[in-house]
Recover the amino acids of this structure.
């Protein structure tokens, strides 16, 4: 039996038909229209048609970047795809496709994918942190996706790691994602460039700090640029502080690190694991593995499809 | 049916026979011998005999200050009652009393008491923070005490709230309990006194900072001593930072604040609630209440007895 996974992002919508082993049999993607609900759902309709041309999915799983109210099947708050605010996504998907669907936070869907067929198979208590533009997360507790009181948990990106840190989009300050995200990495690189720190990043840029990206900082780090390496070490250390809080609070079996920024591999995970170890009881630390994600950039599609499979199998 | 609750602390052991409504029908307490296992269990035997003279409990619940391995029924790590390290507490209790028992972390037992018959009745997802010498915590997830992979969760006292803060007993730095605890309050008061800050605390002390206590700082705050009030505001703010992390991470329905330090009431909760609100999404904040504990200093006995009742009813 096949299921369809949708991953709605601020810049792109991805869709895929996935078999019950988590293999993508057909996938497609389109630029998204984050602020126009009609256009957004036209794009979604086209994608559903495109990927299910040869296979008929039984149900659809939808990952959205925002707070999803579990009971009401409504997106309560999606700051980066504003047309989803208060949208009855399941109803709209049913109108388009005639199929039942389950709607959830996109990072929760990544976590579900990693739990079901990725790095976390066989665990009971795990977190998956998806580090991209921001930092999303999902939590598996007792083998089930943790929803919390209204369906909003888990937002590990808003664990406070720096009591007097940078302002965050959530209204807070010093949240994990102000540091551990592409946005945080770029901000730190820009501050250094503006301070006049010696770095090959300057020669990689044509016009001031325009075009600066986390990927570029990683490329510079792999060329042994000391400043760029220090940015990843700093980022990794704060990732480790958050891992320590998660380990101490939840005695997790595994923390999975995914998302585009996790391409930095050991530049990020090395400092993270060291920092987490230094801030936890030995007993608790030793029962937790901190590992890279397995599924890659399609985790959202795979996770959403498999989450629909769980609900509608 | 009655159950017996034991609360083993670093300075004192408390015991009580509790009915299935959570009412204490008989209780007693003795000084503890934290580093002598034989003496400690002699004391426990006396207490069990004393409180069950007129009522016969069906089982015993035991709260201990440390990491309790859920499966092995062994205390893995109890830094403040060293004689409990690797002790098979259930077996020892059975030898003494002939009764079955359940052993758990003391703050988990406080949380269970508040969940079962205190401020948290009717909730599904809640945390209870017990602020005393340190900061212990318990977490209820889906109406069950959260244990984690090996039984160690939840240790909210070791959420990192200050990335470069004071050294903590766990080996880490800037953990919640380095600030939000009697120890943290006394440390902050002492630093101020040594810096020469104007405060009536000085006149309350006879010999330098000897005898300084969190209670004394609270007494001074209620006399409008600005320095002492600022200590509770600071402590409350960091409590609020931790609440924000808990709310964002777990979308909790309730956070209950108990333990001796919570006697400060609004001095602590006022700043905590304000800070938590400023660091969370409105939707998530509004679904969570931050409230004082209801049961008071016997929560450990009541919770342990009711936890035994749940297991052996």
């Amino acid at each position: 039996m096949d299921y369809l996974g949708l991953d709605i992002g601020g810049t792109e919508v991805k869709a895929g038909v996935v078999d019950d082993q988590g293999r993508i049999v057909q996938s497609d993607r389109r630029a998204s229209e984050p602020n126009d609900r009609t256009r957004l759902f036209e794009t979604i309709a086209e994608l559903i048609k495109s990927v299910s041309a040869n296979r008929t999915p039984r149900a659809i799983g939808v990952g959205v970047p925002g707070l999803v109210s579990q009971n009401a099947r409504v997106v309560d708050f999606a700051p980066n795809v504003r047309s989803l605010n208060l949208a009855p996504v399941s109803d709209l998907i049913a109108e388009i496709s005639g199929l039942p669907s389950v709607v959830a936070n996109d990072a929760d869907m990544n976590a579900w994918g990693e739990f079901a067929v990725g790095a976390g198979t066989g665990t009971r208590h795990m977190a998956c942190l998806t580090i991209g533009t921001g930092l999303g997360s999902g939590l598996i507790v007792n083998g089930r996706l943790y929803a919390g009181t209204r369906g909003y948990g888990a937002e590990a990106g808003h664990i406070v790691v720096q009591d007097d840190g940078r302002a965050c989009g959530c209204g807070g300050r010093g949240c994990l994602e102000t540091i551990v995200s592409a946005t945080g990495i770029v901000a730190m690189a820009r501050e250094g460039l503006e301070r006049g720190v010696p770095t090959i990043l300057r020669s990689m840029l044509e016009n001031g700090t325009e075009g600066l990206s986390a990927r570029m900082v990683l490329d510079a780090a792999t060329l042994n640029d000391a400043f760029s390496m220090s940015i990843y070490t700093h980022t990794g250390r704060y990732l480790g502080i958050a891992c320590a809080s998660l380990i101490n609070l939840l005695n997790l079996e595994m923390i999975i690190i995914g998302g585009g920024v996790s391409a930095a591999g050991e530049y990020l995970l090395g400092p993270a694991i060291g920092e987490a170890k230094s801030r936890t009881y030995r007993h608790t630390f030793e029962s937790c593995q901190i590992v890279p994600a397995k599924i890659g950039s399609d985790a959202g599609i795979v996770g959403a499809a498999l989450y629909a499979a769980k609900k509608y199998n």
DSSP finds eleven helices and twelve strands in chain B. Chain B touches chain A through 51 residues (CB under 8 Å). The mean pLDDT of chain B is 94. Chain B has two domains: 2-113+297-312, 121-293.
